[in-house]
Amino acid sequence: MFQKPKEPGLKALYMRGHINGKLISRILVDDGAIVNLIPYSLFKKLGGKDKQLIKMNMMVSSLGGGDPISARAVASMELTTGSKTLAITFFVSEVQGNFNLILGRDWIHANQCVPST
Question: pTM of the prediction?
């Protein structure tokens, strides 16, 4: 499921999965993240409707060491990685980065994973 980096050194752990049957690449597994995060733009591209969102007003800090960001809502979506499908709660935010999703400790523990780059 995971490929060993070709270059030596520490690299971010990215993987692929599916939501609503659509392939999602550049899923960042971050053992330092407490929450799972999905950009609002990707949520909409996956067919998400605003009425599915549970509105909230919360700040998520230390995303890549930057300024805190505002999470506009939470949404539950089924994520398939390999042969395993789990309902995941994502914080939805207007965020951009080198990732499409961030999977944090909640997902790591639910899958009994030990992430390693």
Answer: 0.80
